């Protein structure tokens, strides 16, 4: 697992432990006309194909041919998936589900710890979005200028310039 820290980002790569079976089979195949060397190279390339970058607002999954960004606030569910060998080696896959799709972070070391950190970051980002929504100015419940017109009508009524019936009739237009 490779970690790089830049301000508030963390970059992770799959652990070599996730590919232990491939490495062992390749080493066993070295006596067979050197086929094991090709296998070692292939497993090494496969291990370094993916990287995952986390910031406090989003996750970026990078492969050779693609780059995918997911806002943390959109993640609905996180689960850890481990085979028997992965569990013994302390690695696993983390599956992130959004309302539209899912993303699998393959072969990360300490998946339960990463899951907990992600859950905390997602909760914090959801709280930030909630506070941002609450701080937005609300739409007025009345048309602009209607309160002024209502106050003017009330003033006319209080001065006796408008009858009670006319006041009640006009007041209905402002409610």
Strand order of the largest sheet: 1-2-3-4-5
Approximate shape:
rod-shaped
Strand content: 25-35%
Question: Could you give me the name of the CATH homologous superfamily of the largest domain?
Answer: Pleckstrin-homology domain (PH domain)/Phosphotyrosine-binding domain (PTB)
CATH class of the largest domain: Mainly Beta
Give me the count of strands. 8
Share in helix: 40-55%
What's the main sheet like?
Answer: 5 strands, antiparallel
The overall number of domains is 2
How are helices and strands ordered from N to C? EEHHEEEEHEEHHH
- Give the CATH architecture of the largest domain: Roll
CATH topology of the largest domain: PH-domain like
* Beginning-to-end CA distance, first to last residue: 64 Å
List the total number of helices: 6
Helix and strand content put the structural class at: alpha+beta
Radius of gyration, CA atoms, in whole angstroms: 31 Å
Helix and strand topology:
Elements: E1 4-6, E2 9-12, H1 20-28, H2 35-47, E3 51-54, E4 58-62, E5 67-71, E6 75-81, H3 84-89, E7 91-98, E8 102-109, H4 111-135, H5 146-158, H6 164-171
Antiparallel strand pairs: 1-2, 2-3, 3-4, 4-5, 6-7, 7-8
Helix pairs in contact: 1-2, 5-6
Give a description of the structure.
The chain has 175 residues and is of the alpha+beta class. The chain has 6 helices and 8 strands. The chain is rod-shaped and about 110 Å long. The N terminus is likely disordered.
């Amino acid at each position: 697992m490779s970690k790089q820290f830049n301000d508030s980002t963390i970059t992770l790569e799959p652990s070599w432990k996730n590919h232990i079976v491939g490495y062992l089979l390749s080493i066993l195949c070295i006596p067979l006309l050197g086929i094991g060397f090709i296998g070692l190279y292939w497993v090494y390339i496969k291990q370094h194909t993916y990287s995952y970058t986390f910031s406090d607002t989003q996750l970026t999954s990078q492969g050779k041919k693609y780059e995918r960004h997911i806002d943390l606030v959109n993640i609905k569910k996180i689960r850890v998936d481990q085979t028997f060998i992965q569990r013994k080696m302390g690695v696993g896959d983390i599956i992130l589900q959004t309302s539209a799709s899912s993303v699998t972070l393959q072969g990360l070391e300490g998946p339960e710890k990463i899951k907990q950190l992600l859950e905390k970051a997602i909760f914090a980002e959801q709280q930030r979005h909630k506070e941002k929504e609450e701080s937005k100015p609300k739409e007025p419940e009345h048309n602009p200028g209607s309160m002024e017109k209502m106050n003017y009508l009330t003033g006319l009524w209080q001065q006796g310039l408008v009858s009670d019936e006319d006041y009640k009739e006009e007041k209905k237009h402002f409610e």
